[in-house]
Prior knowledge:
Elements: H1 7-10, H2 18-24, H3 27-39, H4 45-61, E1 64-71, E2 79-84, H5 101-105, E3 106-107, E4 127-131, E5 138-142, E6 145-156, H6 165-185, E7 194-208, H7 209-212, H8 216-221, H9 246-261, E8 266-271, E9 277-282, E10 285-286, H10 287-307, E11 310-313, E12 327-335, H11 352-367, H12 369-375, E13 397-398, H13 401-413, E14 424-425, E15 435-436, E16 448-450, E17 455-457, H14 467-490, H15 494-508, H16 521-530, H17 538-541, H18 548-556, H19 562-615, H20 621-652, H21 658-685, H22 696-701
Parallel strand pairs: 1-6, 13-16
Antiparallel strand pairs: 1-2, 3-4, 4-6, 5-6, 7-9, 7-10, 7-11, 7-12, 8-9, 12-17, 14-15, 16-17
Amino acid sequence: MSEVMNVAKIFGEDVFNDTVMQERLPKKVYRDLKKMIQEGKELDLATADVIAHEMKEWAIEKGATHYTHWFQPLTGVTAEKHDSFISAPMENGKVLMSFSGKELIKGEPDASSFPSGGLRATFEARGYTAWDCTSPAFVRHDAAGATLCIPTAFCSYTGEALDQKTPLLRSMQAINEQSLRLLRLFGNETAKKVTPSVGPEQEYFLVDAEKFMQRKDLIYTGRTLFGAMPPKGQELDDHYFGTIRQRIAGFMKDVNEELWKVGVTAKTQHNEVAPAQHELAPIYAECNVAVDHNHLVMQTLKRVACQHGMKCLLHEKPFAGVNGSGKHNNWSLTTDEGKNLLDPGKAPHENIQFLLVLTCILKAVDEHADLLRESAADPGNDHRLGANEAPPAIISVFLGEQLEDVIEQLISTGEATHSLKEGALETGVDTLPDVKKDATDRNRTSPFAFTGNKFEFRMVGSRDSIAAPNVVLNTIVAEAFAEACEVLEKADDFHKAVHDLIKKYATEHHRIVFNGDGYAEEWVAEAKRRGLPNIKSMVEAIPALTTDKAIKLFERFHVFTEAELRSRAEIKYENYAKNINIEAKTMIDMASKQIIPAIMKYTKTLADTVLAVREAGVDASVQAEALEEVTALLKETSDALRALEEITEEAGSMEEGKEQAEFFKFNVFPAMDALRAPVDKLEMIVDKEAWPMPSYGDLIFEV
Ligand code: ADP
Ligand code: MG
């Protein structure tokens, strides 16, 4: 008999959230903590001691034995170091469970093994984790038992950011300040805080664990490095929104339950375009919480998949020729009074504040398209962006019919006098209710689309953290707001000045608006004509981090120092090189130890057949032809393997950095493709029984 899940009861049960704090903390301590969270004040140690004690008692009631500072170093995944609550044994040999304010606020993991891009000399490998009290602590249950996880930022001894979270928190401060400044100009004196709201939609694949374990490429790199398309691909689109199968349904039920317990608002789930591909979206949350939660989502998907005999693939392109996975980063700005600055209202043309916000965003995206593109660059995403798949590598903004019309009125006459109305959706069936069509329809091909009351940045890779894209969004929009405020604060006639400014921004940055088909060939040419950057790969995107423009931007808003930016660029080059190196070595291993030996065996069988057939006195030309074809491809494979070995070795002997990364991209990567081509052809003609690993068909149609 299956239990009934009481969602309202389990939601957040493992989170040290506001309700728990209010219940358990002394009134004054609770007030101080709230003040610190809302106004960014510092917490004194005595107060921290009280909070730590209550947090520990609560966690122990939940079964926790350990605590960890949970942080996001530049490895792309989260890190943690576990300490148990036990203190030194007392005279009677017993131990007490203790957790001090100091331990809550600050941790000191051995930082030498995390990437720092030269920021922190290894001889004084000290890094500190500091409690991010704006993201609640939670207890996580897994094979290790129960652990109290404390979300933290990770910095060097001198305060340089070594993680994703520190710059994110800094960028949230910047956008808060500049948004408030803008609101004051429009007469809002009451809002105290503006926070970016973020809702990331997560795509992923599920495959059978046993089959996964038979593929070294999946084990070591998260994607298939060889593999021919099965006769049935995704052409039929019959998977999209298809009925969720039982095995998957059971998995999703457990994922939801685990996420709800730790306070992640898992909301929608459905099948995606490709077979075996799915999506999970939570309800949006404050930016830094959304980033933390997205990490929890990724970890939970992986863990629960294992419990169901499956593996969850988060790689951007696990299978060539099948749709890849991304993450849609929905972003808006919300005041503490609950107002969304990106909500156009019923009559956008009259909503001057909205039009200013909108045109500032157009300006920000146009001026810093290279940074946004960079924020979505990771090795896996190179297979999506700029390859023949969604979305294109060119940044453009989709506004939809209604806003585009308003913007066009502004540009041509300087005044917008009307807004196109939303229509009713006519189904032609009397018994169906009238469904109102959104005034902004959907354009699935745009990398940066306005969807009603938020922007949806669709370039982010499925495996990547959403921290970097949000750092960029928050900071570039903060800059645009600041520049607008500088003009408007000095204006004698605010009304006239704001109209002029909106018209100016709309006109100057209209080139970034594109409402057409982003996948079309013509768009590439058109974008070039408009002067929009088309940055095709990660190594070509990284330089955006260290342009004068970027340094000026990030330093002005105290999000990154120049040194931090340079170190991040270094880390990204290294990361790229390491990734491709692992992929190349895995291909070499598979080709030489599995594929070539299997084909040799197969040619022996074919040769025996040819001989036997000839001996029987009949025509063996078909068999002989097959043998010739396989042997020719085997030779091609063997040559390509040797070439890949040589070039990979050469790449490995280079000094780490930009040049090495470029060498991997422009020399090693093509050599990998050259090895894959004959192998994939072989897979199509060799007996299925002779092939040494599960095929695409086995992996994606038989979960
Ligand atoms: P889609 O049609 O793209 O799947 P949804 O309406 O399902 O869009 O929303 C996708 C994500 O956007 C969800 O995580 C949702 O919570 C989030 N979202 C909705 N409104 C906002 C907003 N104002 N700001 C940020 N995110 C939002
Ligand atoms: Mg979406």
